[in-house]
Amino acid sequence: MEPIKILVVDDEPNIRDLLASGLRFAGFSVLAVGNGNDAVVAAEKGNPDLILLDVMLPDMSGFSVTKKLRSMNILAPVLFLTARDEVEDKITGLTVGGDDYMTKPFSLDEIIARINAILRRTKQSAVEKSVIEVGEVRIDEDAHDVYVNDQQIELSPTEYKLLRYLMENANRVLSKSQILDHVWEYDFNGEMGIVESYVSYLRKKLDPLTSEPVLQTKRGHGYMFKSTKKK
Amino acid sequence: MEPIKILVVDDEPNIRDLLASGLRFAGFSVLAVGNGNDAVVAAEKGNPDLILLDVMLPDMSGFSVTKKLRSMNILAPVLFLTARDEVEDKITGLTVGGDDYMTKPFSLDEIIARINAILRRTKQSAVEKSVIEVGEVRIDEDAHDVYVNDQQIELSPTEYKLLRYLMENANRVLSKSQILDHVWEYDFNGEMGIVESYVSYLRKKLDPLTSEPVLQTKRGHGYMFKSTKKK
DNA sequence: AGCAACATTCAGGTTTCTCACAGGTTCACG
DNA sequence: CGTGAACCTGTGAGAAACCTGAATGTTGCT
After folding, report:
1. Residues 6 or more apart from A13 whose CB is under 8 A from it?
2. Which of A50, B70, B141, B206 has its CA 20 to 30 A from that of B213?
3. Which of A16, A17, A109 to mutate: most B Cβ within 10 Å?
4. What pLDDT sits at residue B89?
5. Residue A73 Cα to chain centre, angstroms
6. Would the CB atoms of A189 and B71 count as touching at under 8 Å?
7. Chain A, nearest residue to B92 by Cα
8. For the whole model, what pTM was predicted?
9. Residue of B210, B186, B184, B187 whose CA lies nearest to B197
């Protein structure tokens, strides 16, 4: 099967490399460039399935890049990246069709989740399922809904991301630093105690509805989502 | 079959040698260097399957090394080593994909276990199974779960590491100093009586569930895990 | 501005783990 | 058998890891 091709466009080398390697690890074929002109050239040649595009580029705006691409009949969906305080009005107008946007700083897992979501919408062929189900817990990634034994529960964004990461790696111990790196934004600078807090929040919401606790503490190692039998 | 290649990067010669010889003995092909520049060169030439990388290096930080490698499209997963009290800011955000990190001081067996865990996750082909089973006892290395005749038991981290080491060398006598070297952190400074204590702890948890004792004392030599028939 | 939801830090309390010690037991050997 | 060395294991102090409620910031919304 062909790997899915992604074109990464960002002028900050740190971010570009972070994205490139993270996406490669996730199984995508990645081409990364640092400005709008290169992006147009690369998109024409490479025929990517999706473009990850920083809005602020040295030579031209992400908006111009997209317009140019579309005029060249390159219709790959675009996931825009933008600083949190950049004017959002401009962006909302941009996201037509399958496009979407995210603010920096982001968490890697969140980027990957969005990419998969877009690909699901555009390519029906896309393999990824939108539902993660482990034991008594089910996540609908498209709707961001979480069900425990068919009963829906409400989670905050961070709680949701944490649960998703733990469930993607069910029955495998994850260290607190791994969790921090995958779930929190890349510039998060705090202590690992926050992982403990959020595990605590999740337990408070999950445990009343499961037959046995699903989030296990592996003392000295980290945490693990344990798949349990359904009720 | 090709041996798995590991690049060890640490500036302290003691640690470097400890790692290199320990990993060679475990069957890996090892290349060891002492600074970031050599690491980049060696990684480019040697194409290692995994990089064991100290975060604090004389010439450049592990972060820079990784960045450089990733930008050169060298995607080998990295297991970071860091002093326990190093500022955590520096290490968060490092792990992408299958990466992980460990604090110094470590135990040799723990390093090997983590390396195998990463290789399992990144290379599907990786030979190693995540389950060690000898007689009536089974360890799931990914989950850190231990079962005796299908009944799960709880072990402390040290108990777990000791049991794993004994089972990896089942039916072979291990001296108390061998056990200390493999299971305890390399700077452990206590007496060998601690091994006796932990063997005792393990027996108390294992023996009630096995048909006959699995941990045998070889007076004057050490201890041995004896594989028994299942119940 | 004011509110509500969420994110983060902090600190006290609790559990669990590590390790040393010491008295008791077993074993090998004379 | 008697003796010393090796081994076993209960006890407890101290440390580390963890949990959680509460206080404090942040953010976005109306």
Report:
1. A34, B67, B71
2. B141
3. A17
4. 47
5. 27
6. no
7. A181
8. 0.91
9. B184
